[in-house]
Amino acid sequence: MNSNTKIAIVTGGASGLGLATATTFVNNGIKTIIIGRDEKKLQDAATKLGSLCVYKVCDLSNLSLIPGLVNGIVNDFGVPDILVNNAGINMKKPFVEVSDQDFQSIIQTNLTSVFVLSREVVKQMTTVGSGSIVNISSMASQYGIPYVIAYTATKSAIEGMTRAMATELSPQGIRVNCVAPGFIATDMSAKALDNDPARKQKVLSRTPMGKLGNPEDVAEAVLYLASDAAKYVTGVVLPIDGGNSVGF
Length: 248
What we know:
Blueprint: E1 7-11, H1 16-27, E2 31-36, H2 39-49, E3 53-57, H3 66-77, E4 82-85, H4 100-128, E5 131-136, H5 149-169, E6 174-181, H6 187-194, H7 197-205, H8 215-226, E7 237-240
Parallel strand pairs: 1-2, 1-4, 2-3, 4-5, 5-6, 6-7
């Protein structure tokens, strides 16, 4: 690996948007470390992506593991240039049926672990005076979607955190941006929409382009924000949504 090769961490990198992002990174010569809970899926993804992709198994909701994870990555590969906070879980339940435990578990995975991982990576990035963090939000933070109260809370917080981080960290050479995917054709969304034709019709009818996006559409935006092409871009939330967030 030559010393100019950029190093990226992608959480939830074995499937969906994370895998699409890791694939796009590798295709652009970026050494990519994918992180997730399922070793088999991680192994399959890393094998498919070749020598520029390696994986680390870690349940990020176990916050105490994160500092060791980051130290291990730095020891093995050096200070990461890019962090993509993609890992997240969702739960569809009526508001009054969401238990304290349900709410906390989604906050822990989607929000607290993003904060802790970002903090530990930023400690490293500040030693070299550069870095790019890309957070992943959702249409749930752009407008109200029923039955996903905890998920919505986390994604709204991610967007606020993006702006706060960008303001504080940009003077230290670290850019922080966010991508807000609309309705993208992944296994997760297919499960949600194919069993609910009315919901699918509603999604398509308020998306001006009239179709779902591809995971690659999101990955290309993440690549742009992570790359030097976006060197004067920080603190933005970029919807990749076929016009969904402005659609009527």
